[in-house]
């Protein structure tokens, strides 16, 4: 019950197709480079036969890449002066947005500082006659301020 159209694995045409598909494609560098930087046979002797061609291919591609220089980016050929102008305009608007954001953050921080100073002034005014509460309040505020400052410094160093 064998299929008459199916080829037998020992058919010579089938073997040709298999052998052509199993060969890795190897980019050969120029002859003068390949001969100078060939892998010594004593190194290849320790490598299994199946992997020798792969290793030679990778080695030759690496050597070829070192001497061929950078491959140009195909997009670079398509960039025009209009593209560059648009890129500069977009970068300018991005910088303007960043500046507005930084200014907004500065105003917010200034408002927080003013609120905290007003709150501290109010506490000092309310508890100016009670010395025990003032000592605890001042030590607590100094501890909070020191911890806040160290936290900011630690965050900035990261």
Description:
This protein starts with 11 loop residues before the first helix and ends with a helix. Mean pLDDT is 75; it is low at 14-21 and 23-30. The radius of gyration is 37 Å and the shape is elongated. The protein has six helices and no strands. The chain has three domains: 21-68, no CATH class; 80-126; 130-158. The chain has helices spanning 12-22, 31-36, 41-44, 49-68, 81-126, 131-157. It has 158 residues and is mostly helical.
Name the shape in a single word: elongated
Give the class from helix and strand content and strand pairing.
mainly alpha
Number of domains: 3
What letter string, H or E per element, gives the SSE order?
HHHHHH
Main sheet properties: none
Beta-strand share of residues: under 5%
Unreliable parts = 14-21, 23-30
Tally the beta strands. Answer: 0
Give the proportion of residues in helices: over 70%
Distance between the amino and carboxyl termini? 74 Å
Our count of helices gives: 6
Average residue-wise pLDDT: 75
C-alpha-based Rg, rounded: 37 Å
């Amino acid at each position: 019950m064998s299929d008459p159209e199916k080829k037998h694995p020992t058919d010579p045409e089938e073997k040709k197709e298999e052998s052509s598909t199993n060969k890795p494609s190897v980019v050969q560098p120029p002859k003068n480079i390949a001969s100078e930087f060939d892998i010594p046979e004593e190194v290849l002797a320790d490598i299994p036969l199946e992997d020798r061609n792969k290793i030679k291919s990778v080695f030759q591609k690496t050597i070829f890449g070192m001497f061929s220089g950078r491959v140009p980016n195909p997009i670079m050929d398509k960039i025009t002066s209009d593209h560059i102008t648009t890129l500069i305009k977009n970068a300018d608007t991005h910088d303007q947005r960043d500046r507005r954001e930084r200014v907004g953050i500065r105003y917010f921080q200034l408002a927080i500082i003013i609120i905290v100073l007003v709150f501290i002034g109010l506490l000092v005014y309310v508890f100016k006659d009670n010395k025990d509460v003032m000592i605890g309040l001042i030590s607590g505020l100094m501890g909070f301020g020191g911890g806040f400052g160290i936290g900011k410094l630690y965050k900035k160093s990261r």
